[in-house]
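User: My advisor, Dr. K., asked me to get a structural model of this assembly before our group meeting. I'm new to this, so sorry if the format is off. These are the inputs:
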Amino acid sequence: MTSAAGGDEIAEFYDRHPYPPPIDDLADLERAGSPERRRFDHHRIWPARPVQDSHDILIAGCGTSQAARWALRYPRARVIGIDVSRTSIEQTRRLAERHDLGNLQLVRLPIEEVDELGRSFDQVVCTGVLHHLADPEAGLRALRRVLAAGGALDAMVYARYGRTGVGMIQEYSRMLGIRPEAAEIDDLVASLRELPLGHPLSHLLRTTRDFTDDDALADALLNPRERAYTVPEVFALLGSAGLRFGRWRLQAPYLPQCGALSVLPHGRRIAGLPIADQYAALELFRGTMVRHGFIAFRDDEPAVDVRFDDDRWRAYVPVRSTTAVAVEDRLPPGAAAALLNRAHTSTDLVFFVTSEQKRAFDLVDGHRSIAEISDDGAFFELLWRHDLIVVDASRGTSAGP
Ligand SMILES: C[S@@+](CC[C@H](N)C(=O)[O-])C[C@H]1O[C@@H](n2cnc3c(N)ncnc32)[C@H](O)[C@@H]1O
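Assistant: The format is fine. Below is the predicted structure of the whole assembly, which you can bring to the meeting.
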């Protein structure tokens, strides 16, 4: 890699504080259950395309284990992991050897210079990285250049409002001249334990795994460079790089049809706004989103949307989320179950269903079409909005390319 990128303070930081905290072995879980998960993940991105698992995947800013996980999960795919940090690449290489991952190639290379690979990719995964770049737009444009026709970007950037407390403690740490070293981190942890309950950081300390380990804590609070994005800023970032927003990885928190607002007058009012404004309003209402995970596509290609406002939903095959669960106790009158997705962090995103709806949900097996299960397209639209299903539209006749 070039000396310019090698001298970057971010590379140095991640050499000393690799993220995620290094592990020796990828859990067996990564292999178990993968066919269902692969199918769900595939149709979340490409509803109308038959499942592919031998595609080209780039893990941009792979950290210590992400590229190895993907290579293990997609044994037939060709996976390339790039990162500026030598430690991250070395840790990933150890995992590749441990699990005999012949389909994984690792290159120490900055995202900004990804063209040097001379390759294009069906899927570019870039989570927790763009917000650390000196010029995120330039980095994203570089990723856009290596996105194959029909390819998808699967990205995550920090969200601004929910990270207010992080910004405050970052500034506090800068004022005190705290360095990302073990003794300094111990002192910081001791102070954080005494943060008053209402402090904007306290909900994060309680709920995220980013504060459970010293390197993760350094990553979150002592990172030399990071920014965070509001929903409109995510859209502006994508636009500047020639990309089109596809969907949120988990969409329910951004939708007025889900959660607490769905039964209030404001739910309907927000639903009347342009779609990007709906997402922005939900971010303001929720106030605690700490990251935005989204799928984006090249803006020179037509959108392939999941739609329930015409008849094509009948041919969709619903595929259940592997993290969807049905709870059957402590229910309100008339409800036969509470459907929820364990990956959601907002506790209001519960979908109460009647016994008839519960029966329909139980019939979702990844084979039957919606029409074969039920006539109630609106119910399946709500299941989809609540991240309880994605749809396989590849068997339909008119779902698009
Ligand atoms: C917070 S970690 C995220 C790791 C991984 N994507 C994940 O989600 O587990 C950020 C990673 O991005 C890498 N990174 C930062 N700037 C980069 C750049 N310009 N090009 C490539 N990698 C970069 C860092 O070295 C670090 O390993």
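One thing worth pointing out at the meeting: Residues 31 and 117 are 28 Å apart (CA to CA).

User: Perfect, thanks a lot.
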